[in-house]
Design a protein that fits this description.
78 residues; alpha+beta
Length: 78
């Protein structure tokens, strides 16, 4: 069974989307990045927890966080 994961990234239209890695459609769309991150946290929390990735404009992971009640694979923050 794979990890439950959501990615927050900027769309071509300037808005931010919350998306599962394998999905073709966004789970949510927001005007601001912090709104999309908040929505991604809600989605993951209701779905049993998982990994949240925030991607920069270049597509690389800028920030990653484990949303409870999932198990964090690392014992240190970061």
């Amino acid at each position: 069974m794979g990890t439950n994961r959501r990615i927050v990234q900027k769309r071509d239209d300037g808005r931010f989307e919350v998306k599962k890695p394998e999905s073709t459609r966004a789970s949510a769309v927001a005007k601001r990045q912090h709104e999309a991150i908040g929505r991604a946290r809600q989605i993951l929390s209701k779905d049993g927890g998982g990994e949240l990735q925030v991607r920069g404009l270049n597509g690389q992971i800028r920030k990653q966080d484990t949303i409870s009640p999932a198990n964090d694979p690392r014992s240190t923050k970061g």
